């Protein structure tokens, strides 16, 4: 059955994916917008995974300054070619990530970067009130609480400020799917007026 063009347009606006991919996803999902959205997120993740081994040596520094000029952030985002580094969507993504860092300060980009001593201390803190429960229940509670902790402090796992139905990683994967290059958030720094040290990675 033919897919409504308005649905294709809506899916393109939501995901940033190309017309053909959006149309194919809607056809596969029989016009169900939510299912097609999930399908495209999976597709973006698959494409991103394939491209992670390619060298990303070009890119931009995205910047954001809050309207009160008291909070700001810089983010280095890399890609493979100068052509993509000049792309409007790529540059907009770098600015969005800088805004994310300013608005919801992360500790690291990926969970693997969290220091072991911090994780040990956090696990002890998160299980301190469930010591009377069976070990398997304790483990389940700890895992749930850890996932919530990761969503707070790991940039790629944070809900995207402008649309909390997506994570920053899903936003990144969609851009990789659209532009066809390995794109990486490499480092960030966040400034807040009155704080002695900037938050950086």
Ordered list of secondary-structure elements with their pairings:
Blueprint: H1 5-15, H2 19-28, H3 33-51, E1 58-65, E2 71-79, H4 82-85, H5 88-103, H6 116-127, H7 135-153, E3 159-160, E4 163-167, H8 168-179, E5 184-192, E6 199-200
Antiparallel strand pairs: 1-2, 2-5, 3-4, 5-6
How many helical elements? 8
> How many strands appear in the DSSP assignment?
6
Structural classification: alpha+beta
- Total domain units: 3
Q: Tell me the series of helices and strands, N- to C-terminal.
A: HHHEEHHHHEEHEE
The biggest beta sheet is recorded as: 4 strands, antiparallel
Average pLDDT taken over every residue: 87
Kindly report how far apart the N and C termini lie. 50 Å
And the CATH topology of the largest domain? Tetrahydropterin Synthase, Chain A
* Strand numbers in spatial order across the main sheet: 1-2-5-6
Q: Explain this structure to me?
A:
- By secondary structure, the chain is α+β, with helices and mostly antiparallel strands.
- It has 3 domains: 5-51, Ubiquitin-associated (UBA) domain (Helicase, Ruva Protein, domain 3, Orthogonal Bundle), CATH 1.10.8; 58-109 and 154-200, 2-Layer Sandwich (Tetrahydropterin Synthase, Chain A); 115-152.
- It is built from 8 helices and 6 strands, in the order αααββααααββαββ.
- It has helices spanning 5-15, 19-28, 33-51, 82-85, 88-103, 116-127, 135-153, 168-179, and strands at residues 58-65, 71-79, 159-160, 163-167, 184-192, 199-200.
- A 4-stranded antiparallel β-sheet has the order 1-2-5-6. A two-stranded antiparallel ribbon has the order 3-4.
- α3 crosses α8 and α5 (88-103) packs antiparallel against α8.
- The radius of gyration is 19 Å and the shape is globular.
- It starts with a helix and ends with a strand.
- The mean pLDDT is 87.
């Amino acid at each position: 059955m033919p897919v409504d063009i308005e649905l294709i347009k809506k899916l393109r606006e939501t995901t940033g994916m190309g017309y053909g991919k959006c149309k194919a996803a809607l056809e596969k999902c029989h016009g169900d917008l939510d299912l097609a959205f999930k399908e495209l997120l999976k597709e973006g993740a698959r494409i991103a995974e394939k491209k992670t081994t390619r060298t990303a040596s070009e890119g931009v520094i995205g910047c954001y300054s809050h309207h009160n000029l008291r909070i700001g952030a810089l983010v280095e985002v890399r890609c493979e070619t100068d052509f993509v580094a000049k792309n409007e969507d790529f540059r907009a993504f770098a600015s969005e990530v800088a805004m994310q860092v300013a608005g919801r300060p992360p500790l690291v980009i990926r969970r693997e970067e969290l220091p072991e001593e911090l994780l040990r201390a956090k696990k002890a803190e998160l299980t301190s009130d469930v010591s009377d429960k069976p070990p398997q229940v304790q483990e389940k509670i700890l895992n749930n609480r850890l996932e919530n902790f990761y969503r707070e402090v790991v940039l790629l796992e944070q809900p995207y400020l402008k649309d909390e139905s997506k994570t920053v990683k899903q936003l990144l994967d969609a851009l990789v799917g659209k532009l066809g290059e390995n794109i990486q958030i490499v480092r960030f720094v966040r400034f807040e007026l009155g704080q002695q040290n900037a938050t950086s990675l």
